[in-house]
Amino acid sequence: MAELLVLFEDEAAGRFVPLSYTRPLYDMRCGVFTLRERVALLSGSEPAGICRAHLAAVHGAGRWPLGLLASGAPLVLVNGRALDLAWLPALRAAPPNTVFVTDAGGVEIMLGARLTPALASAIFAALLEQQGAAALHELRRFARVVDVATTVLTNPWDLIVANGAQIVGDVAVWREHGLWPSAAEQRPTHDGVVLRAPERIHIHPAARLDGPLVLDARDGPIVIDAAHIEPFSVISGPCAIGPGTIVASARIRGETTLGPVCRIGGEVEASIVQGYSNKHHDGFLGHAYLGEWVNIGAMTTNSDLKNTYGTIRVALGGAGQVDSGVLKLGCFLADHVKLGIGVHLNGGAMIGTGSNIFGVHFAPKTIPPFTWGGEVFREYRIDAMVDVTRRVMARRKQTLSAPLEAILREVFVMTRGDRARLATDARPAVSLESGG
Q1: Residue 101 CA, distance from chain mean position
Q2: Is residue 326 part of a domain?
Q3: What's the helix, strand, coil split of the chain in %, to 5?
Q4: Which of 190, 178, 245, 344 has the alpha carbon at shortest distance from 29?
Q5: Distance (Å, rounded) from C-alpha 335 to C-alpha 315?
Q6: How many other C-beta atoms lie within 10 A of the C-beta of residue 337?
Q7: Partner of 58 at 20 to 30 A CA spacing, among 19, 71, 213, 427?
Q8: How many whole angstroms separate alpha carbon 76 and alpha carbon 92?
Q9: Residue 248 region, left (φ>0) first, then alpha (ψ -120 to 50), else beta?
Q10: Looking at the domain assignment, is residue 236 inside a domain?
Q11: pLDDT digits (tens, 9 = 90+) for 308-364
């Protein structure tokens, strides 16, 4: 009987807010793919998902996914924090009721498991509440436990730090599963395109490359899906560019992933753009993570290095300001964030879901979800925000479905307390430590 692949979240989901308010960790992009896409590539089938209740209609198998147990097939569970999946074939071949565990920042977590429906049913309630530790505790009583050394996500900056190596690994796996031939094998006839290390460059047949431009893969592979690269662009590897994306005469430096249907200009370095987001104009984006439906105005720039060359602190959900231990770290912009022209962001800035920030030189380092303003900050009324979202999505021929709208409205309610501290006369603080 065929097995069922099921992705799940554990306790770490809360450390990734506001990025994780609107999608589970397994649907966040790192490398070429999200984890869901990576598992689908390796297995040849779309995995199911178990996630937080307000996300389940869009990103999961429903609030009560008991149908996953009904078929009688073994369940292969994969932790949504996983990056490298070299261990997955061994898990799929393991005897039923085998659990793989790994170290995540000094804490042992359940990495994956192959379970009979009977044993899986014993931990379903815990997984529905993201209680991975409780699930693992129960499984230890009945299952065989195997230690695995691998890479998992622990904090939001791990997405950025891991991205370059993940692109390299994803391209290697993708080549084994039907990636388009390299430019050296394909010998594309794009006029005015300089290819450096063409054996490491993969270009979709439907991609449009308008020279003059340079693709430099000497430091890592470049994958360009059915995208449009405009003249005078320079792209350095490792880099992945998704379908429908336009690179507008930009400098795209290494360790960068641009998801589908983005508009990207200016200078971008070591950053991830989930998809359907715009940074079309000049300005610097470095060591940053952008969600979907983000729009960044002209000349808006983030710092990713302190003048003191110290490590950068980031506000984590429920943990306050935490030292990342990372020297170069930019901003985190959650889904549906809008930034006006000329906004400057400090390293480690965290801008919450649905916020619209404008008319300010230095934005505060931490801005709650659904915040409106600049010199003065107020709550962004949810009805107005939803109306804008409908118009924005329609421009990309997408529709704000009822389940997607319900997610936004639920996040608005659950974050109301964060906005209660907004003073109507509050003004942003300027950091004296920002560098370039």
Answers
A1: 23
A2: yes
A3: 25, 30, 45
A4: 245
A5: 17
A6: 27
A7: 71
A8: 7
A9: beta
A10: yes
A11: 999 999 998 767 789 999 999 999 999 999 999 999 999 999 999 999 999 998 999
pLDDT grade for 189, boundaries at 50, 70 and 90: low
Domain range for residue 223? 159-419
Residues 194 and 331 in one domain: yes
Tokens describing residue 148: 């695995």
DSSP class of residue 75 equals E
Where do the H-state alpha helices sit in 31-155? 35-43, 56-59, 67-70, 88-93, 117-128, 132-139
Quick one: 141 and 194 in the same domain? no
32: left (phi over 0), alpha (psi -120 to 50) or beta: alpha
Sign of CA dihedral 44, 50, 52, 55: positive
pTM, two decimal places = 0.94
Same domain, 132 and 182: no
d(CA 417, CA 399): 29
Question: Is residue 257 a contact partner of residue 239, using CB atoms and an 8 Å limit?
Answer: yes
164 and 94 housed in the same domain: no
Residue 426 neighbours by CB under 8 Å, 6+ apart: 376, 377
Out of 135, 154, 173, a domain closes at 154
